[in-house]
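In keeping with the milestone schedule agreed at the kick-off meeting, the structural modelling team has produced records for the first pair of proteins. Each record is given below as a sequence line and a structure-token line. The laboratory manager (R.T.) confirmed that both were archived under the project's standard naming scheme.
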Amino acid sequence: MPWESRECRQCGSVSVLSLPSAKDLETYYDTFNKDYDGGGGNLERYAKRYLREVLRFGRGGRLVDVGPSLSPFPNLACEAGYQVTAIDYIRPAGLRPDIDFITGNLNSEKVLEGLTQPFDIVCNFAVIEHCMYPDLACKILSSLCRPGGHIVLMTPEIGTFATSNALGRSGWFCPPKHLNLVSKEALVGLFDRYGVRLVSSARLELNAWRWLARYGCGALEGCVGLMIKKASRRVWEKQRNRRVHKHKGMAMYLFEKRNDRDPMRSR
């Protein structure tokens, strides 16, 4: 694409043309993780929203949060009765002292070195879009999860009616912060390679009013864009390459790692 990316015409995923080096990213996140505010100062509210999803599995068990940055989610999960481990570039400020911390990220399998026992719940909230290689990220997340365990993942929405038809490209694509936007179809395919299946998915918001505003706007942009695309593909493509559309949805996915004895496991 003219905006320095590749876009999959089948699933809608978007990836950066030229990846930064691992060292450059480490330097970038050393600063990023000191100032991250959760996109408008909603870190606390989103953390509580994540916990509601995780509590569906019951309280207790081993939980790892990969890439929490400054989110209070690890602390909230610990208070809810989980045995929590956090993984990130640097130990987050304010992380409870009784939470284990591993220095690492999803760009290297070194994060798995020394891991003696997989986790019951693997959390990855708004992280995979920051990763250099989505396939490697899915492999690592799958390795962190025990058979029968769950992976809870949130990432920007892409490959949907709105993002595929709106006049403009997604504002979520913003290197070096976001390097890859991975669609639902692509995520399902990537995780399936590692014996992990999709259980459910949903569009995330903090409350019903915000949900209606966010996704109502997306539906409107998609409809307008589709009409213009039908009338003149050339005009639509010109606008898509020069504009950024307003809609910025978030998708949450619940995956389950197949048990080795599951006859439906991946070949």
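The second protein of the pair:
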Amino acid sequence: MEEEYQIYGETTDKAAKRSYWDAAKGLQQVDGLKPTEYLTELANANVEGELTYQQIEDLLYKRYEQESAEDIQNRNKEADLVAARIAHILDSPGYPLKIASLKAIHRELFKDIYDHAGQFRRVNIYKPEPILNGDTVKYTNYSALEDTLEYDFDTEKGKSYAGLTEEKVLKRITAFTSSVWQAHPFMEGNTRTTAVFMECYLKNMGFPVDNTMFKDYSHYFRNALVRANFADYKNGITETSQYLENFYKNLLSGGNIRLRNRDLVLKERFTPGRDRGMEL
């Protein structure tokens, strides 16, 4: 007798669910956001099996029908809804290794928050980085986004992780993550989208992922991406992936490398004449 397909439901593993929520809430820090206590209550109910992800999203929509001035100032709706959607995605079968998956994740995370959810940007952007004293990473020109990412994805598809040493695995994952993030294809939410996409990709390949890393070190993760993509060759500054490799070693291999944001500050940018008064 032929087996019937089963519907993929939410996990009943409380520890796994808690780790999804930890990562989801922690990742909001990369954009200076903090989920509310209300979301924490809903997340706890989900862990205990009292609420589904969909019920939580419905309750959040109801909660933010009338946003207060504080809600708007703190972007509470975005923080809570995006965190809930990240947890839901992490507790799912994942996505194939395609550019369309990157767009789909962004669309799912930011629908009803940004008009451009799931759409690549059509302008060039920059962002002053505190660890660079206000300098910026050079993101991919908007006109080259599709071609650049297609090359990155095709390159990743064309290689196998089978038989690689741990060091080579970490370097491969780091390089792919860095290239996707450097493109910065969306107007907002690039780091959160990249992190979720990479988690899904790594899980699909069978890598164990320690979600507490995104709970405790999401800001470090973003700063490590900055350092992996910033260079000023005239002044002897080159890109370095070491910090991102350290993050992934702890994430995937149970490493205990000490991760400190102050170690990522590019001290050469803070010499006399360069200090722009950025707060670290």
